[in-house]
Design a protein that fits this description.
The protein is an alpha+beta fold. Helices cover 27% and strands 26% of the residues. It folds into three domains: 207 residues, FAD/NAD(P)-binding domain (3-Layer(bba) Sandwich); 56 residues, D-Amino Acid Oxidase, Chain A, domain 2; 109 residues, D-Amino Acid Oxidase, subunit A, domain 2 (D-Amino Acid Oxidase, Chain A, domain 2). Bound molecules: flavin-adenine dinucleotide.
């Protein structure tokens, strides 16, 4: 191939797409404003599920699970970065049950063979820690789970460098040289980098990068999201905790084991977009969301809400920490994956709406396929079939979106 690609951003997306491009013969440079993992990729709950309402995403996440399971052979490192404890969506109304059953049938038709609906009897037989009185049923997929995100971006960066990728950290893109609608070079305090193709992998920073590059400003809102960590105590043993799936309560609060000693918890909340956030803002905790604010905080509300469906959580010792980061949320909760409408040689891989860690391998496949093709595409090839990427097209109608957002 011999062409030169410059990737902007070294999170899960940037490192994986750089690796994918290098395996296809591209000469690749990654420009990262701070350091590998400086953005949302180091602040994520890192859940990975194939249970989505968008068929393209169900198929893409089947591919992502397969790639993550085989990560040491396909990318590098010694550790498999996925823990397949499953995802359990708990349902509390007849309406939610009917919608979940229809979704499970659609997911099965997309090849997700192991997703199933459990009525409440089956649910408490398999998961005796669920409060029977609080739910009517659940959907369950044992091959879902969560990732070790630092393993993903560190090993992907290392593997990419072994293939000759140049990784330039502390190199924010601050300027651009263009010939008409084409980028010739990117300017950073660490030098000028020429490119045949440029890949925007900056996610929550993408709108301001777009302004800098003269590209299309996509509707992406950086929204603050929190995680809380509760210390195990009481009747749930360490092994039982470590084996738990990611559990989503009917109202959207979720939890999953961080280890045998700690439960990670999260719950999306109303938030105003913070388009000009800086790096420090990622870790800024508003008092009402901090566990330090005690029983009145959203931290404790989330814990109490989860304890309604998993009563043993009530016995936990307390919340020991609060962390935060930004989602890059789009109006339909699907990412934008495609060539920029205004800048010919710019590929946008952004707007992951809280799903960018799990999307990583699928995003990398799409990004590298687009770079090879030199134009937008309607499908990519994965797992022996053509997968439509229409749901992620820039310029799509944004009315009908992903319904399963947590
Ligand atoms: C609390 C929380 C929970 C989450 N839970 C999940 C989950 O369960 N599952 C899931 O899949 N996802 C989840 N996410 C979302 C996921 O973390 C992100 O979608 C994913 O990490 C995005 O990766 P990325 O590489 O695209 O972006 P980032 O990791 O944000 O990387 C972007 C990089 O671009 C760099 N950059 C920005 N501007 C420039 C510039 N001008 N020049 C050079 N470099 C630049 C930044 O420094 C940064 O390193 C969660 C996020 C949060 C905050």
């Amino acid at each position: 191939m011999g062409q030169r690609a410059v990737v902007i951003g070294a999170g899960i997306t940037g490192t994986l797409v750089a690796h994918a491009l290098a395996t296809r013969g591209w000469t690749v440079t990654v420009l990262e404003a701070q350091h590998v993992g400086a953005g949302s990729s180091s602040r994520t709950a890192a859940g990975i599920r194939q249970q989505f309402s968008t068929p393209e995403t169900v198929m893409g996440m089947r591919y992502a699970v397969d790639q993550y399971r085989n990560f040491p052979e396909r990318v590098g490192g010694a550790e498999v970065p996925i823990v397949q404890n499953g995802y359990l969506f708990l349902l509390a109304t007849q309406e939610a049950v009917a919608a979940a059953q229809a979704r499970a049938r659609m997911q099965q038709a997309c090849g997700l063979a192991d997703v199933e609906y459990l009525d409440v009897g089956e649910l408490v037989t398999r998961f005796p820690w669920v409060a029977r009185h609080a739910v009517l049923g659940a959907t369950w997929c044992p091959s879902d789970g969560f990732l070790h995100p630092a393993t993903v971006y560190n090993e992907a960066a290392a593997a990419a460098q072994r293939l000759g990728v140049e990784l330039v950290q502390r190199a924010p893109v601050t300027g651009v040289e263009r010939s008409g609608a084409t980028i010739d070079a990117l300017l950073t305090p660490r030098g000028r980098f020429v490119a045949d193709v440029v890949i925007d992998a900056t996610n929550a920073w993408s709108p301001r990068l777009a302004r800098l590059l003269g590209a299309t400003e996509l509707p992406i809102a950086p929204l603050k999201r929190y995680l809380w960590f509760a210390e195990r105590a009481g009747s749930m043993g360490g092994e039982a905790l470590a084996a738990m799936p990611l559990v989503i309560a009917p109202g959207g609060a979720y939890c999953r084991p961080e280890s045998g000693a700690s439960m990670l918890m999260g719950w999306a909340h109303e938030a105003l977009p913070e388009p000009d956030f800086d790096y420090e803002d990622q870790d800024r905790i508003e008092p009402g969301f901090s566990h330090r604010s005690g029983a009145e905080s959203v931290a404790y509300e989330t814990w109490a809400t989860l304890a309604e469906v998993v009563p043993q959580l009530e016995e936990f010792a307390g919340i020991t920490s609060t962390t935060a980061g930004f989602y890059a949320t789009t109006p339909d909760h699907n990412p934008f994956l495609g060539y920029d409408p205004e800048v010919k040689n710019l590929i946008r891989l952004v707007g992951f709406s809280g799903h960018g860690a799990m999307f990583g391998p699928f995003t990398a496949l799409i990004g590298a396929s687009l770079a090879d093709a030199g134009r937008n595409m309607t499908h990519v090839s994965a797992l022996g079939r053509d997968i439509s990427i229409d749901a992620f097209r820039i310029g799509r109608e944004l009315r009908h979106g992903e319904l399963l957002v947590i």
